[in-house]
């Protein structure tokens, strides 16, 4: 004899996962509904079976935390916070592979090397190696830097969706045209942009899905690296970014 279903219960509802925390279960229902694509509030109500005020309240709360955003038609869609969390989850694999590559960049260029990932409206240094002596651009691991200047900021913003790109350019020292050039050539350069007398070269690191999750950089004094450092150093930095991208791809296939 099959399970008993009352008039208000459906087979689909019976299979739902119940954690014992009702608001969490309801929130997950909304995210599950959005996994298949954009949805209006009415569609969320139909998909989740939640009361309209409840669905609206939870969707707005998710929007404030950037788990959900609105598209140009006002529909709810999954937000950028998931990509940021995915990047953080993959950080251990990236850090495991990054040490030797950063050291190789330092050895070949003579300049400090770093890896940055975006953290909200800033970027954070998650790995770094420095010159042993002489003038150098010292960026300690854990340092938070602006997304408004510097070649790493350009890389982390250049491949964002149009809305976040537009927002990021509002106070930036670089332009949309410069980011278009970054996307075309695959590397970024800054000279006296983040700090007078400092220049840097950066390239993207991508996850197995092809999304840019971090930037690998070298930085140092303009007097030593020159006013057009990309001509000399970009191939080395790009090769390092490509190696780490391939390392993440290999690691994902080994799981």
TrEMBL record:
Q: Which UniProt keywords apply?
A: DNA-binding, Transcription, Transcription regulation
Domain called IclR-ED: residue spans: 81-250
Q: Taking every annotated instance into account, which residue ranges of this chain make up the domain HTH iclR-type?
A: 21-80
**PROSITE patterns named in the record:** HTH_ICLR, ICLR_ED
Q: Name one GO biological process term.
A: negative regulation of DNA-templated transcription
Q: Per its UniProt record, what SUPFAM superfamilies does this chain match?
A: GAF domain-like (SSF55781), Winged helix' DNA-binding domain (SSF46785)
Protein name, as recorded: IclR family transcriptional regulator
Recorded source organism is Bifidobacterium thermophilum
């Amino acid at each position: 004899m099959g399970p008993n279903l009352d008039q208000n219960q459906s087979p689909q509802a019976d299979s739902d996962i119940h954690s014992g925390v009702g608001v969490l279960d309801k929130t997950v229902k909304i995210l599950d509904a959005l996994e298949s694509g954009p949805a209006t509030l009415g569609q969320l109500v139909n998909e989740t079976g939640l009361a309209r005020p409840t669905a609206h309240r939870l969707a707005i709360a998710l929007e404030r935390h950037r788990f959900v955003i609105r598209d140009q038609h006002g529909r709810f869609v999954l937000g950028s916070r998931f990509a940021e969390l995915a990047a953080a989850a993959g950080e251990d694999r990236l850090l495991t592979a990054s040490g030797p590559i950063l050291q190789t960049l330092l050895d070949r260029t003579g300049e400090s090397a770093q890896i940055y990932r975006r953290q909200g409206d800033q970027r954070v240094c998650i790995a770094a190696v420095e010159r042993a002596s002489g003038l150098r651009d010292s960026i300690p691991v854990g340092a938070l830097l602006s997304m408004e200047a510097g070649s790493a900021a350009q890389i982390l913003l250049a491949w964002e969706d149009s809305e976040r790109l537009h927002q990021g350019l509002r106070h930036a020292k670089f332009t949309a045209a410069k980011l278009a050039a970054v996307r075309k050539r695959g590397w970024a350069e800054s000279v006296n942009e983040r700090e007078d007398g400092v220049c840097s070269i950066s390239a993207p690191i991508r996850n197995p899905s092809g999304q840019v999750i971090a930037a690998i950089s070298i930085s140092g004094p303009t007097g030593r690296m020159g006013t057009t450092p990309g001509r000399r150093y970009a191939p080395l930095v790009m090769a390092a970014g490509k190696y780490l991208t391939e390392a993440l791809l290999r690691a994902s296939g080994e799981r």
